[in-house]
Amino acid sequence: MLTGKFGKEKNGLIILRESSNSTGLIDMGVTPSYLPGFVKYDERDEVEKIGNVWKTELKDIFKPVDLSSKLKKGEIKECSYLEKIH
Questions:
Q1: Residue 32 region, left (φ>0) first, then alpha (ψ -120 to 50), else beta?
Q2: Res 67: pLDDT
Q3: What are the contacts of 15-19 at 24+ separation with CB within 8 A?
Q4: 34: which residues sit within 8 A by CB, 6+ positions away?
Q5: Could you count the other beta carbons within 10 Å of the beta carbon of residue 8?
Q6: Which of 51, 22, 53, 52 lies closest to 38 in space, CA to CA?
Q7: Burial per residue of 67-80, b for 16 or more beta-carbon CB atoms within 10 angstroms, e otherwise
Q8: Band of the pLDDT at 12, cuts 50, 70, 90?
């Protein structure tokens, strides 16, 4: 609204949160709990739509993952962890 672009083509709202980068990660589907657009595992119709666009069957590969448990068991060999420092 401040820039005068609200409501015009190819412009939209930007979500401002305490952790704005986390919003972008979830939007892009970088987290193991979501596909792009905040789509969760149990939203089967939405998961299927994304799978159709990607030409991939996602029901067998997109599953909730407990990363902490997998790291402790040695099932994940390498991991990058980013933490916000206040």
A1: alpha
A2: 79
A3: 19/84
A4: 26, 40
A5: 9
A6: 22
A7: eeeeeeeeeeeeee
A8: low
User: Can you give the residue range of the structural domain that contains 73?
Assistant: 1-86
Type of residue found at 67? L
pLDDT (tens digit per residue) in 30-78: 777 888 888 888 999 999 999 999 999 998 888 888 878 888 898 887 7
Distance CA 25, CA 8 (A): 25
Better pLDDT: 69 or 18 = 69
Domain tally, the chain: 1
Q: Mind spelling out the 3-state secondary structure of 3-68?
A: CCCCCCCCCCCCCCCCCHHHHHHHHHCCCCCEECCCEECCCHHHHHHHHHHHCCCCCCCCCCCCHH
**pLDDT of residue 26 exceeding 60:** yes
